[in-house]
Design goal:
single chain; alpha+beta; 2 domains; five-stranded mixed β-sheet; three-stranded mixed β-sheet; 15 helices; about 40% helix
Length: about 375
């Protein structure tokens, strides 16, 4: 087996290319979501700036219609966090990830709260509760609590969400439309059954197409799934040696991106999988400590990329109908980067808050 060396900077540029972040792609939002294998949607609207920064002419309102048309859905998937994926990938990914979700549940605080409640009984009760219409967590707590009075109602809902593929139905996740969570079973909502064969080998190839070169530990970090070494070993993959000695794998015909490729300053959405899908995040964080962008309780800040690596954070700021983008760089900005971020921020505001009475522009804060 020939193992070629690969530098961190090459991994950075290649990841940005595969994540559609070298330049905006002329691709439909649905095709982008497919290519990216979904976007984390723990914050219900993170996917909008996440796709805006990747796609030419991205329209916030048009993407909301994909949710209403059930072409994309939001449900717990990778790492048992809410992701937005295409309908086809929801039905494919959930059965592949179910063992990982079950494993995580056994060590959770919810497990003790449902002692004595059988899986089949809870799933049947959930089906019955959601048979007529989607319901929110409080309604499910009431209905399931009445069915299993000895159990903790909150635990019942959280365990049902783990054992069953419950989608969060719109208008939850539609930009500019505040709405609480309401659940429906994915197969009922999409009118199709879960995949009988989710094709794990095909998912490895798709992961590498979006995040490679990478290794089994990286895919495990992205997905939460285990047992990936054998899948990688059974595939015909190209191999590389990272600077730390780790063996990384890639598709045989996939090309690496020139490490000297120039990269403009960019905005990356909060909770973006760009930062969450490798065991070694230095290919995107560089020398920035993870704690500067990911809190101890898992809150992932929106970030700015400078020369392709994380160089600060950003957020929307709303007050009395006005909208602004606040950028907090980790070091003084070069004038070209500041100009690019200001122009990009104004375009983002114009797209995201087209109807806002006042757009205050881009404000640069001290770290």
């Amino acid at each position: 087996m020939v193992i070629e060396p690969v530098t961190r900077r090459t991994l950075n540029r290649t990841l940005l290319s595969r994540q559609l972040l070298l330049q905006r792609a002329d691709m439909s939002p649905a095709d982008a979501v497919t290519h990216l294998l979904g976007l984390q949607s723990q914050n219900a609207t993170s996917v909008y700036p996440g796709l805006w920064t990747r796609l030419a002419g991205f329209d916030f309102a048009a993407f909301g219609r994909l949710l209403a048309e059930r072409r994309v859905v939001r449900l717990a998937l990778m790492r048992n966090t809410v992701h937005l994926v295409t309908a086809a990938d929801a039905l494919r990914l959930r059965p592949w990830l179910q063992p990982a979700l079950d494993r995580g549940l056994r060590s959770s605080a919810w497990a003790a709260g449902i002692a004595g409640v059988g899986r089949d009984a809870l799933l049947a009760a959930g089906r019955e509760a959601l048979a007529e219409q989607p319901l929110g967590p409080s309604e499910l707590r009431t209905m399931l609590g009445a069915r299993f009075p000895a159990a903790d109602p909150a635990s019942l809902v959280n365990v049902l969400r783990t054992w069953a593929p419950l989608v969060q139905v719109p208008p939850r996740g539609v930009w500019g439309v505040p709405c609480g969570v309401r659940y429906a079973f994915a197969d009922d909502w999409l009118g199709a059954p879960l995949a009988a064969d989710p094709d794990p080998a095909g998912l490895v190839r798709r992961y590498l197409a979006a995040f490679g070169p990478a290794g089994p530990a990286d895919m495990q970090k992205w997905s939460g799934a285990t047992g990936l070494k054998r899948l990688f070993a059974d595939l015909d993959l190209r191999t590389y040696a990272a600077e730390d000695g780790q063996v990384l794998y890639d598709l045989p015909d996939a090309e690496l991106t020139d490490p000297d490729t120039p990269v403009s300053a960019r905005f990356v959405a909060d909770f973006d999988n760009l930062l969450l899908s490798h065991a070694d995040r230095t290919r995107i964080l560089g020398d920035v400590p993870k704690s500067r962008v990911i809190s101890v309780n898992g809150i992932v800040s929106g970030t700015i990329l400078l020369d392709g690596f994380v160089g600060g954070t950003w957020r929307f700021e709303r007050a009395k109908g006005a909208a602004a983008v606040v950028v907090t760089p980790f070091a003084p900005l070069r004038a070209p980067d500041r100009d690019t971020l200001e122009a990009e921020g104004l375009r983002l505001l114009a797209t995201a808050y087209e109807g806002a009475p006042e757009v205050r522009g881009v404000r640069f804060a001290r770290a």
